[in-house]
Protein backbone atom coordinates (compact mmCIF):
# COMPACT_ATOMS: atom_id res chain seq x y z
CA UNK A 1 0.00 0.00 0.00
CA UNK A 2 1.26 3.49 -0.71
CA UNK A 3 2.67 5.57 2.10
CA UNK A 4 0.33 8.56 1.98
CA UNK A 5 1.55 11.92 3.21
CA UNK A 6 0.18 15.42 2.82
CA UNK A 7 -1.23 15.94 -0.64
CA UNK A 8 -3.29 18.45 -2.60
CA UNK A 9 -6.92 18.34 -3.68
CA UNK A 10 -9.58 20.89 -4.56
CA UNK A 11 -11.05 22.53 -1.46
CA UNK A 12 -13.74 20.33 0.06
CA UNK A 13 -12.70 17.25 -1.93
CA UNK A 14 -10.98 14.29 -0.28
CA UNK A 15 -7.75 13.42 -2.08
CA UNK A 16 -7.71 9.93 -3.55
CA UNK A 17 -4.55 7.92 -4.15
CA UNK A 18 -5.29 4.91 -6.33
CA UNK A 19 -3.29 1.75 -5.73
CA UNK A 20 -3.40 -1.97 -6.25
CA UNK A 21 -3.89 -3.69 -2.90
CA UNK A 22 -1.41 -6.55 -3.01
CA UNK A 23 0.47 -8.48 -0.39
CA UNK A 24 3.73 -8.39 -2.33
CA UNK A 25 6.65 -7.03 -0.41
CA UNK A 26 10.22 -5.94 -0.49
CA UNK A 27 12.33 -6.73 2.54
CA UNK A 28 15.56 -4.88 3.24
CA UNK A 29 18.66 -5.27 5.33
CA UNK A 30 20.91 -2.26 5.66
CA UNK A 31 23.75 -0.70 7.60
CA UNK A 32 24.94 2.84 8.19
CA UNK A 33 28.68 2.83 8.83
CA UNK A 34 31.00 5.38 10.41
CA UNK A 35 34.76 4.93 10.05
CA UNK A 36 36.74 5.39 13.22
CA UNK A 37 39.50 7.70 12.01
CA UNK A 38 38.05 9.78 9.19
CA UNK A 39 34.43 9.81 10.50
CA UNK A 40 33.29 8.92 6.96
CA UNK A 41 29.68 7.74 6.82
CA UNK A 42 28.44 5.20 4.30
CA UNK A 43 25.29 3.23 3.56
CA UNK A 44 24.96 -0.41 2.53
CA UNK A 45 21.69 -2.16 1.67
CA UNK A 46 20.41 -5.41 0.21
CA UNK A 47 16.83 -5.75 -1.02
CA UNK A 48 14.89 -9.02 -1.20
CA UNK A 49 11.52 -10.05 -2.61
CA UNK A 50 10.86 -12.44 0.28
CA UNK A 51 11.15 -12.13 4.04
CA UNK A 52 14.74 -11.98 5.20
CA UNK A 53 16.03 -15.05 6.98
CA UNK A 54 19.26 -15.84 8.83
CA UNK A 55 20.79 -16.81 5.50
CA UNK A 56 20.35 -13.29 4.07
CA UNK A 57 21.78 -11.80 7.29
CA UNK A 58 24.88 -13.97 6.90
CA UNK A 59 25.22 -12.98 3.22
CA UNK A 60 24.95 -9.31 4.19
CA UNK A 61 27.56 -9.68 6.93
CA UNK A 62 29.88 -11.35 4.41
CA UNK A 63 29.32 -8.41 2.07
CA UNK A 64 30.22 -5.95 4.85
CA UNK A 65 33.40 -7.92 5.60
CA UNK A 66 34.40 -7.63 1.92
CA UNK A 67 33.63 -3.91 1.72
CA UNK A 68 35.03 -2.69 5.05
CA UNK A 69 38.59 -3.18 6.27
CA UNK A 70 39.41 -3.64 9.93
CA UNK A 71 37.10 -4.43 12.81
CA UNK A 72 33.37 -3.80 12.50
CA UNK A 73 31.19 -3.01 15.49
CA UNK A 74 27.57 -3.83 14.68
CA UNK A 75 24.85 -2.06 16.62
CA UNK A 76 21.86 -4.37 16.36
CA UNK A 77 18.27 -4.08 17.41
CA UNK A 78 16.64 -6.99 19.20
CA UNK A 79 15.37 -8.68 16.04
CA UNK A 80 15.03 -12.44 16.40
CA UNK A 81 16.66 -12.84 13.00
CA UNK A 82 19.98 -11.74 14.56
CA UNK A 83 19.96 -14.55 17.14
CA UNK A 84 19.72 -17.61 14.90
CA UNK A 85 22.14 -20.50 14.86
CA UNK A 86 23.49 -19.67 11.37
CA UNK A 87 24.18 -16.05 12.34
CA UNK A 88 25.83 -17.01 15.66
CA UNK A 89 28.08 -19.50 13.89
CA UNK A 90 29.10 -16.90 11.28
CA UNK A 91 29.93 -14.39 14.03
CA UNK A 92 31.97 -17.01 15.88
CA UNK A 93 34.05 -17.62 12.73
CA UNK A 94 34.68 -13.93 11.99
CA UNK A 95 36.48 -12.19 14.82
CA UNK A 96 36.41 -8.83 12.98
CA UNK A 97 32.69 -8.57 13.74
CA UNK A 98 31.74 -7.28 17.19
CA UNK A 99 28.12 -7.07 18.31
CA UNK A 100 26.52 -4.47 20.57
CA UNK A 101 22.78 -4.48 21.10
CA UNK A 102 20.45 -1.53 21.23
CA UNK A 103 18.11 -1.41 24.23
CA UNK A 104 14.90 -3.44 23.90
CA UNK A 105 12.87 -0.86 21.97
CA UNK A 106 14.90 2.17 20.95
CA UNK A 107 14.36 3.04 17.27
CA UNK A 108 15.41 6.61 18.03
CA UNK A 109 18.97 5.33 18.60
CA UNK A 110 19.15 3.46 15.30
CA UNK A 111 20.56 5.43 12.32
CA UNK A 112 18.99 2.83 10.01
CA UNK A 113 15.57 4.06 11.14
CA UNK A 114 16.54 7.48 9.80
CA UNK A 115 17.40 5.88 6.44
CA UNK A 116 14.00 4.21 6.15
CA UNK A 117 12.18 7.34 7.32
CA UNK A 118 13.95 9.21 4.51
CA UNK A 119 12.94 6.51 1.98
CA UNK A 120 9.33 6.61 3.16
CA UNK A 121 9.25 10.41 2.74
CA UNK A 122 10.73 10.12 -0.76
CA UNK A 123 8.27 7.41 -1.78
CA UNK A 124 5.22 9.07 -0.16
CA UNK A 125 2.22 9.35 -2.48
CA UNK A 126 3.86 7.21 -5.15
CA UNK A 127 2.22 4.14 -6.55
CA UNK A 128 4.58 1.59 -8.05
CA UNK A 129 2.68 -0.77 -10.34
CA UNK A 130 4.87 -3.77 -9.56
CA UNK A 131 7.49 -5.08 -7.17
CA UNK A 132 10.06 -4.56 -9.93
CA UNK A 133 9.16 -0.86 -10.07
CA UNK A 134 9.37 -0.55 -6.28
CA UNK A 135 12.75 -2.34 -6.26
CA UNK A 136 14.01 0.06 -8.94
CA UNK A 137 12.86 3.06 -6.90
CA UNK A 138 14.57 1.71 -3.77
CA UNK A 139 17.81 0.99 -5.64
CA UNK A 140 17.75 4.51 -7.11
CA UNK A 141 17.14 6.02 -3.67
CA UNK A 142 20.04 4.03 -2.22
CA UNK A 143 22.40 5.05 -5.02
CA UNK A 144 21.36 8.66 -4.63
CA UNK A 145 21.82 8.59 -0.84
CA UNK A 146 25.27 7.00 -1.16
CA UNK A 147 26.38 10.00 -3.28
CA UNK A 148 25.27 12.57 -0.67
CA UNK A 149 27.68 12.73 2.29
CA UNK A 150 25.59 15.29 4.20
CA UNK A 151 22.48 13.10 3.91
CA UNK A 152 24.37 10.01 5.11
CA UNK A 153 25.79 12.01 8.02
CA UNK A 154 22.27 13.20 8.90
CA UNK A 155 21.17 9.58 9.37
CA UNK A 156 23.68 9.32 12.23
CA UNK A 157 23.34 12.81 13.68
CA UNK A 158 19.53 12.59 13.43
CA UNK A 159 19.52 9.56 15.70
CA UNK A 160 19.80 9.94 19.45
CA UNK A 161 23.09 8.03 19.60
CA UNK A 162 25.93 9.65 21.50
CA UNK A 163 27.97 11.78 19.06
CA UNK A 164 29.73 9.59 16.50
CA UNK A 165 30.30 12.19 13.81
CA UNK A 166 31.78 15.60 14.24
CA UNK A 167 30.14 18.35 12.22
Radius of gyration: 18 Å
Instruction: Output the CATH homologous superfamily.
Output: Ribonuclease H-like superfamily/Ribonuclease H
How many runs of DSSP E, i.e. beta strands?
4
From the spread of the alpha carbons, the general shape counts as globular
Level-1 CATH class name: Alpha Beta
Classify the beta-strand content into a percent band. Answer: 15-25%
Tell me what the CATH architecture is: 2-Layer Sandwich
- Provide the number of structural domains: 1
The main pleated sheet reads as: 2 strands, antiparallel
Short account of what is shown:
The chain has helices at 54-67, 85-93, 111-123, 131-146, 149-157; strands spanning 27-34, 41-48, 72-76, 97-101. By secondary structure, the protein is an alpha+beta fold. The strands form 2 sheets. A two-stranded antiparallel ribbon has the order 1-2. Strands 3-4 form a two-stranded parallel sheet.
Q: How does this structure look, described?
A:
The structure is a single chain. Helix content is 37%, strand content 16%. With 167 residues, the chain is of the alpha+beta class. It has one domain: Ribonuclease H-like superfamily/Ribonuclease H (Nucleotidyltransferase, domain 5, 2-Layer Sandwich), CATH 3.30.420.10. A two-stranded antiparallel sheet has the order 1-2. The model has no long low-confidence stretch (mean pLDDT 85).
Please describe the topology of this protein:
Blueprint: E1 27-34, E2 41-48, H1 54-67, E3 72-76, H2 85-93, E4 97-101, H3 111-123, H4 131-146, H5 149-157
Parallel strand pairs: 3-4
Antiparallel strand pairs: 1-2
Amino acid sequence: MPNVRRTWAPRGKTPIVWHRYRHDRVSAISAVTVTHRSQRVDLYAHLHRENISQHEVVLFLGYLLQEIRGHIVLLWDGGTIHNGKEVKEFLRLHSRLHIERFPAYAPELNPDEQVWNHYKRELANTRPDSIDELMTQLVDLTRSARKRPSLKRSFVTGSKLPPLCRS
